[in-house]
C-alpha cells in the first residue's frame, strides 16, 4: 500500500501537540541546512586540494549548486501531494550522495586521474536535492497549523540560515580537525538521514501507509548503516588512494587543518644515485622537495641574496622543509634566522623524519634559528607595526620560499601590498629573493611577479635556472640605482660552494607593460 494522496494543506495527525510538532519541523530545517552547507564546503575544499585554484572551484561548486537548487524546487512541486514520503526519500538520497561525495571525488582523482566531471556532477545532484527540501518542508509545516505563506517562509528561512551558519562553522572547527574530510562527510550524511527519518517516520507517520512506512524505514536504515560502515574503511581507503596517487613508496601522510603533507621515497636522500626512489615531499598534492634535484633549487634561491651584502639577520618566509634554511646557514656572518611557517606539522617532519632531516642537515637544531608559526603576510604586518613578537629590527635578507603564485589564497603573498611590507622590513641594503614560478613555461606569471616587485619600490634582477627544471627567481633590493645585478654567467658555486651548482641566467622574452598584482586585482592566471 502506497502513502495516501493528501491535500497539501490538510491538517495532519501528530503524536505531539501542534506547537511542539512545528518546532521539530523547524529543527529539521536547521539540521538539514547545516548538513547541506557542509556538503558544499566539503566539495570546495577537496576539489581545491585535488586540482588547485580554489577561486575557480569555489565558483563552479557554488554557482552550479545554486542553479541546481532552483531545479530541485521546481521538481519538488510534483511531490507536494506526497510531501512526507517525498521528504524522506530526498533526505535519504541526499545523505547518501552528500555523505559519500568526498570519497567518490577522491577515488575519481586517485584512480581515474581527474575530478572536474565528478565535481560538477555531485554539485548538480546535491543542489537539486537541497532545493527540493524547502517546498516539501513548507507543505509539511502548513499541515501542522496553517498560516499565511509569508509567515511560514519567514520561519523556515530563519531556521535555514541559522543552520547554515552552524554548518559553516562546524566544518572548519570541528569536522576537519577532529574527523577529516572523508569521515566528516560520512558523519554529516548520518545526521542528515536521521533528521529526515525522525520527521517522517515518527512525526508524520500517519501520513504514510504502513507498507510505505516500512519501506522508508528500510531505506533510511540502510543509508545510515552504509554511511557508518564507511567510516570504518576510511583509513584503508585513504592509504590505497594515496598509493594510487603517489606510488607504492609512500612513507608518511599527515593531514592537518591547513594542508596534507606526504613523504615518499627512500629515507636515504642519495638512494636515487644507486637506482632507488628519490625522497619527495608533497604539500597538498604539489611537489615541494625532490632529493634528485640536489641543492640546485635552494642554492639558486638563497645564494645570490646572501652574497650580495650584509646577511646577519635573515627572515625565511615558508621553507618549513628546512632546505632553504640549510642554505642560509652555510653562509658566514649569519647571526639570526627567523622562519615564518604557517603549518607546524611540516617543521615537525623536517625535524623528525630521518630522510628529510638528513636532507636539511638538521638545520632546525641550529641555535641561531627561531621558528614563528603564522601566515607570512601577518608576520610582516606585525613587524611593520612593531607588535610584540613581530620584531622591530630590520632584516638584511628576506627569502620567500612559498608556493608558486596562482589565482588562490597564495596570490596575496605575491601582491604589491605584500612586497611593500617586505620593503619596510628590509635594511637600506637589504635584499629579497623570490621564487616567481617558471620563467619559460609561464612567462606572464613570472614577469607579473617581477613587475609587482618593481611597483613596490624595489629594484629587481631577474634570473632563472633551466636544468633539471625550469625555475624562475627574482632578486630585489632597496639599494640605489646603479647597484650591480646578478650576472647571467655567474654560478652558485662561487656564491655558496654547493656541489653541482646550477647556472644562473637572465630569462629571455621579458614581457613589458604588465600591471602589478594587488589584493583587490590578483593578476596571476
Task: Give a summary of the structure in a few sentences.
With 525 residues, the protein is an alpha/beta fold.
Explain this structure to me?
By secondary structure, the protein is of the alpha/beta class. It has three domains: 18-237, Growth Hormone, Chain: A; 247-287, no CATH class; 293-496, Vaccinia Virus protein VP39 (Rossmann fold). It is 53% helix and 13% strand. The protein is built from 15 helices and eleven strands. It has helices at residues 18-51, 54-75, 83-112, 116-144, 149-203, 210-232, 234-246, 296-306, 323-329, 344-352, 354-360, 376-385, 416-425, 443-455, 493-496; strands at residues 250-255, 260-264, 280-283, 286-290, 313-318, 336-341, 369-373, 395-401, 426-437, 459-465, 471-477. Strands 7-6-5-8-9-11-10 form a seven-stranded mixed β-sheet. α1 (18-51) packs antiparallel against α4, α1 crosses α5 (149-203) and α3 packs antiparallel against α4 (116-144). It is elongated, with a radius of gyration of 28 Å. Residues 1-9 and 481-497 have low confidence and may be disordered.
Largest sheet: 7 strands, mixed
The level of helicity is 40-55%
Mean pLDDT equals 87
Determine the strand fraction and express it as a percent band: 5-15%
> Oligomeric form of this entry?
single chain
Count of DSSP H/I helices: 15
Order of helices and strands: HHHHHHHEEEEHEHEHHEHEHEHEEH
**Structural class of the secondary elements?**
alpha/beta
